[in-house]
């Protein structure tokens, strides 16, 4: 059994991770930590765990590294890079659900986030988008687990950029997210009456997932990709829909693009290409690790419009983290996260 | 492996059953049938099953009985009683998610529903409320799977009636249900804009779950129990909350009642008693087989107020149906339905 | 024009009051105050007022009393009773939307709330449930504007208690409220993801609206009425539904009770009795001053079940406050609050 | 008093129109008609009108024209063009809320919709986007009331196209709509459980509002504008948010564009430009005739991103229809539709 530790277990992503690992047949939770709820019963913090006895421990990174085979970190940005050292990595594997080990370019990191405290280790980290970087993840000591918007956006556009089919500077990604993406932190903007029955764009042209998407799509394209990225908040708990626009370099048919998408995703269990004329909706992937992707070619504008849908807490966070763990430890990638999405839920 | 057939697989309860059985380690789905979608891919009807190949078959009861060890029926009332015969029961076990085999008194059935077409078999059927009737279910050929409101209401009140602690004619059950309880049938009243941002009571003092609750509570009490039952529709997908009121015959403390509830439920895995001062909320049981129950004693009125919460499609339908299958086939009762409820979802 | 001041204009109820008074043809807003947003543009706090220039002032009770004909107070309990003095009442009329001037019995107030700082003035205050106390309100200097749950509950049950038709100790009120009733204050429990897709009971047998309902129903009945009151939180913005149960003293028909309800409410513009077999739903009164009331007689239990529906911020707070102002100043009671409820909204 | 008739009064838009006209000080409803509910009480169809007596009449176009000064038509496309004749127009003014009199190019109409039955009259019709075509509307006999998505999209982009600041073929409009836009017709896709907790794009690159937006923006630009338009369905009742992307021809600052927007909209009462860094959200315009517009310049991509928000049933349908009536009859444009948006609602 893989012994797992979870730092930051009382956020929504941390809690989803606790849930998935409790059901994982090859892993067991060794320790969960929480800054806000140290010493408290986990079932008091999350009564959905009412039948389970667990206590939120105080964090002790070194002790965790000693006891665990893998430590998951679900922390605000800037926190993980302070904790991970060469010494820690000698003892356990790290899967960081935060932003600290996602961007390969530290300058980009520091211009969008804050100071980075472990730049050497960042060089070693792999971007844990499993379907794209599977081979690079194997054997690695530290994984930067992708963001929710980014997972959905990159998977949706990867084949197009990889094959050089769209103009690199034409990409526009308009995303819609459920509210759980904002976490459990208390703020007026996330009160029920402020979110319900409304929709808004936020952090327009300035959201921190922008450079993450750009970096990965640039790697895929082999040249710089600069995007417009607009996140929106939708009155629902979970789910992300990415509506992606890109200008085709040449005139291509649906079938042409279908062949390209199948080249990359045909054998990917967790990526489900929708049939022609059918498009992803978040309800069909909610509470699962699936990413549904569909697209159409708009002949009038010679644009391709790609729709991607994931569950932000699952494939966009905890589920993919478990998928990364499975890869790191040589397990079947689907272990513990292979469930049909429930509906309606 | 238990071979299972599902009649009526394209309603919400039928679909939930398909999902649970697909993940069940000891069962496999032999056939699914649908009147409305015969011949169609299941994934076209429910795209959450996008990665799975299944086709909706035309129903053939005899063939199903031949091929299957158990047949689940998720049909409108009056349909199952036409299908189940002595001959069928010799070939397979039946778990009926509809109303036809729940009430033991056929007169009561016919006064609240319609003609009953297999009265002899009704006598043999057992009311499949697992925690109460476990021993009676074992070895039976046909199970009437309880209704959603009734599962929640009976479990909430059973210890009080069984022990004779409350006045039998004082019981009032005020329930709140998510919209999935109304099924996938198309009607103006269930349109998004008609349900969203509103709450209503319906079928006041006339809902068909009333006699089902009364019959079971009367059996528990050993004398007639006549209740007021008021269902309400709440703008959410899943979940039932039952707020139950009853006059205590004598003055009793919280501790007195706690002891009674623990006597019956302490060892029940799927029943979770909440701590004193903490009450069930549907979010903590959504998408699970758990029933959370909590209560308080109101000294001012000498009433006990009991709150119960379940997921109407899971413990209130498909989950309990699987639980009944597990009992019928001698499996661990939790097999295939033992999951921590996800949150937020 | 009536000059109005509003203390606490940045809560949900205060904001609703600002909106209604801005549209009132016989009133004008002289000053709005806010503790949290002193000096800030109101349109920055509530962008629905984006086209209107108003600034949140610092509160100065004496100055307000000088400048205004009427001062509305929308404050946490215990605050209004500190501000209202004989001197203030000589200068302006007071309509308090909080709890301080609702209960006539100061002992009851102090046992459910906190110390009361103006007991003499409390004696003078009138309970501003317009349809019941209209004549008493006229000419009064200070009005205790009823609570949201209480407005709905008392109006629903008043005729039955007034006429002595139900057992006084049998009354059970099970209410369902939208989230705006909890106000704009920030707390984890009111975050979108914590409220959405769930329903819960809270403050069971201990909510502060209990004594308010009991006092008014006791006055109506002419003898003590002790009730069970259970509020529930529903995932919607606005609206309260009260489901009320009471044992009939004698066997009475629907027509008997209909006659009683019409006796009291036939000419009440803002009370709409629903037709037989039709019951109130919050969507039909949302964003209006109407209270819809319907009922049925359950012959099986000899109970009457009454359903009442209001908008908690409108008839349950700001709308009724304006209605009280209209009465106090001799205007047509409907002035400024006579709108058809929008739907769907 | 203007005598008004409403054909199709039992759809959501028709019902909103009934509500607004009932409150309009200069108009009175002469007749309402409904195909589905002929002869029924309006309050039975929409219980929010519970206190008002009105009956749904059978439609008789000629009689309506005789009796009314203005007839509003809220019908499926293809219906209005069959009804409006020269003879009708001699007797009354027509405001059509459907699609039949919006497009000036009949070929475009017929390629996106169906046969058009009154092409001559179409030439006379004016596109009733009040803020843009106010002067053209005055004195006209027939108005094509704009669609909901189109009102929001055109108002958001008009100044940019009118001034030639953006590349005409670069415009992408990604819209998010509440469910009331789909009307009250019954379909599985609009059931609560199918819409709630999900988001989807639909009619991608093929929605009928596309040519309407293109025609108006082309007129504004003085050259062809071809757009990508993607509508999305959001789990809320009302509201449309349009997120618009366009490439700037030259490098322009926020201030440059601000000056342009103010040139066109500074004196428009119903258009509210948000402050720099603040963006429209549908909650701030819900249940009102306001259109909120905000924008930002993304230096990284040299794109302008404009956000527009309206209420789809109000400014996007019935409210703008009343605004058009006010213009046609020489009233103050705000008459009967000048209300602060309620919040939260």
Task: Write structural notes for this entry.
4 copies of one chain form a homotetramer. The first copy, chain A, has helices at 12-22, 42-45, 61-67, 80-83, 86-91, 106-112, 119-124, 130-137, 148-162, 192-195, 209-221, 254-265, 314-328, and strands at residues 2-7, 27-33, 70-73, 93-96, 126-127, 142-144, 172-177, 200-201, 228-233, 240-247, 271-273, 291-298, 303-310. By secondary structure, chain A is α/β, with parallel strands linked by helices. In chain A, the strands form 2 sheets. Chain A has a 7-stranded mixed sheet. In chain A, a hairpin with a 4-residue loop joins β12 and β13. Chains A and D meet through β7, β8, β9, β10 and β13 of A and β7, β8, β9, β10 and β13 of D.
Strand content of chain A: 15-25%
What order do the helices and strands of chain A follow?
Answer: EHEHHEHHEHHEHEHEHEHEEHEEEH
Morphology of chain A: globular
Unreliably modeled segments of chain A? none
Helicity level of chain A: 25-40%
* Largest interface between protein chains, with number of residues from each side: A-D, 45 and 45 residues
Overall pLDDT of chain A, averaged? 97
- Oligomer classification: homotetramer
Largest sheet of chain A: 7 strands, mixed
Q: Measured on Cα atoms, how large is the radius of gyration of chain A?
A: 20 Å
Class based on secondary structure composition and strand pairing of chain A: alpha/beta
Number of strands of chain A: 13
Enumerate how many helices of chain A there are, as a single number: 13
Distance linking N and C termini of chain A: 32 Å
Strand arrangement within the widest β-sheet of chain A reads: 8-9-7-10-13-12-11
